[in-house]
C-alpha cells in the first residue's frame, strides 16, 4: 500500500511539473501578430539628393509607391512613400518583418543605364531592409537600419518607428556603381531616414 501511494505521488508530481514547464514555455514564447497595412515614408538626405542629381543619377519611385518633395533643416529633398502590405511582428523582444509594395529605379541619364529594386522588406531581427531586383527572384540587402536615434512606439494595434536611419550596404553600393557606371555610391552611405506606421 505504501509503495502504491508513493508511486502515485511521484506520478502526480511529475505530471504537475510537466504541465508547469509547458505553461512556462508557452508564456515565454513571443506573441506574433500579423501586419495588415500601413505606410513607410523615406526622406532622402539633401546632400545625397544633390550628389545624385549632379552626377546624372535620377531615382524614380515605382508604383504603387508615391514620389514627393520634402525638406530637412529647410533644405529641399526627395521623398518616397510605400504601402505596407504584410509581415509579422513580435513585441518582446521587438522583431519580425514589415513587407511593402513598390520600388526604386535608379537611372543614369548620361548613359541610359538603370537598376531597379522593389518589394522592400524591413527585417527587424537582422536590422536591415532588403529588396528584390527587378525581373528576378533575387533579394538583396539594400540598407542597414540604425535605430540609435529613432523613436519607436508599439501600441495596441500599431507600430510607429520614426527617424530610422538608412545606411547603404556594400552589396547595394557595388551593384549600383557597377550597373550605372558611376562611383557615387559607397558602403555605409547615410541615404536618409524612414518613418513607418504598421497596423496589425
Care to give the gist of this entry?
The protein is 24% helix and 51% strand. The protein has helices at residues 2-28, 46-54, 170-180; strands spanning 32-34, 37-44, 57-62, 66-72, 75-90, 95-100, 103-108, 113-123, 128-133, 139-146, 151-154, 158-168, 190-199.
Q: How would you characterize the overall build of this protein?
A:
Helix content is 24%, strand content 51%. The protein has helices spanning 2-28, 46-54, 170-180, and strands spanning 32-34, 37-44, 57-62, 66-72, 75-90, 95-100, 103-108, 113-123, 128-133, 139-146, 151-154, 158-168, 190-199.
Q: Main β-sheet, in a few words?
A: 8 strands, antiparallel, barrel
Nearest-angstrom radius of gyration?
A: 24 Å
Number of helices: 3
Helix-strand category: alpha+beta
Q: What's the count of strands?
A: 13
Low-pLDDT runs of 5+ residues are 1-28
Identify the strand order in the major beta sheet: 2-5-6-8-9-10-12-13
User: Strand share of the residues?
Assistant: over 45%
Could you give the distance between the termini? 58 Å
Average pLDDT reading = 88
